[in-house]
Amino acid sequence: MPLAVNGIALKGRVAVVTGSTSGIGLGVADALAAHGAAVLLNGFGPGTAIDAAIARVAAHGAPVAYSAADMSRRDEIAAMLTQAARELGPVDILVNNAGIQFTAPVEEFPVERWDAILAINLSAVFHATRAALPGMRERNWGRIVNIASTHGLVASVHKAAYVAAKHGVLGFTKVVALETATTDITCNAVCPGWVLTPLVQRQIDALAERDRLSPAQAKQALLAEKQPSQEFATPEQIGGVVAFLCSEAAAQVRGVALPVDGGWLAQ
């Protein structure tokens, strides 16, 4: 269930959330719908999982649409924004969440994986924002929230492409915030630490296999290395933060990189 946040009224708003059929993106979509927004979901996965995601978000009573747009293709990104406007109404909220990961030392990093990560984790943020901004400017209202990472602020070994992309997302966020500073459009980033999503679960599984650990031991090892709270953040918590950034209370929160990281960056 989404976390309750008082004073957030998004009824009548239309949101597009990329990469939202599972994990953080689904938590964000669920939170926005709970506060009244119509939501366009986007992502890949088995049909049953997509149907379940749509049903979960639609349970709040707001309209829901779905796009299978590939975030590595700028033409499909533009078509997704057009679809949202056609099926739900003009897009007021854009949450750029879609992301992929791959780990390897720089000298062994496959060039095609670098290109794919930069395309989906960074370039897609630009393409979607570029498509959404003209309508937001026309109506003089909008909220753009980019899901970055603690790795937008600090680095870890073997994550060259991911770290580079997320640092780029934060720079891009600041530029858009400055370019919209005299309008009622805001652009901010959320920087999660470890969140137990399918993406992170794959890292846990790899760690368990590499070091011959149980799943529980691998989870603890991952948290102990970075996250002082020793707890994963949840997609619902990230959703609550995004909902706040979309509220009127956050109208003068602009260009920030807001950590939700269990103390990772406090060290």
Characterise this structure.
- With 267 residues, this protein is an alpha/beta fold.
- It has eight helices and seven strands.
- It has helices at 23-34, 47-58, 74-87, 111-139, 160-179, 198-211, 215-226, 235-245, and strands at 14-17, 38-42, 64-67, 93-96, 142-147, 185-192, 257-260.
- A seven-stranded parallel beta sheet has the order 3-2-1-4-5-6-7, with helices on both faces.
- Strand 2 (38-42), helix 2 (47-58) and strand 3 (64-67) form a beta-alpha-beta unit.
- Helix 3 (74-87) runs parallel beside helix 4 (111-139) and helix 6 (198-211) packs across helix 7.
- The chain starts with 13 loop residues before the first strand and ends in a 7-residue tail after the last strand.
- The model has no long low-confidence stretch (mean pLDDT 96).
Name the structural class: alpha/beta
Compute the number of strand runs: 7
Portion in strands = 5-15%
Distance between the termini: 31 Å
The arrangement of helices and strands along the chain is EHEHEHEHEHEHHHE
- Spatial strand sequence of the major β-sheet: 3-2-1-4-5-6-7
- Poorly predicted regions are none
Helix content: 40-55%
| Mean pLDDT value | 96
Report the sheet with the most strands, covering strand number, pairing sense and barrel closure. 7 strands, parallel
Anisotropy-based shape: globular
Number of helices: 8
Work out the radius of gyration: 18 Å
Write the layout of secondary structure elements.
Elements: E1 14-17, H1 23-34, E2 38-42, H2 47-58, E3 64-67, H3 74-87, E4 93-96, H4 111-139, E5 142-147, H5 160-179, E6 185-192, H6 198-211, H7 215-226, H8 235-245, E7 257-260
Parallel strand pairs: 1-2, 1-4, 2-3, 4-5, 5-6, 6-7
Helix pairs in contact: 1-2, 1-8, 3-4, 4-5, 6-7
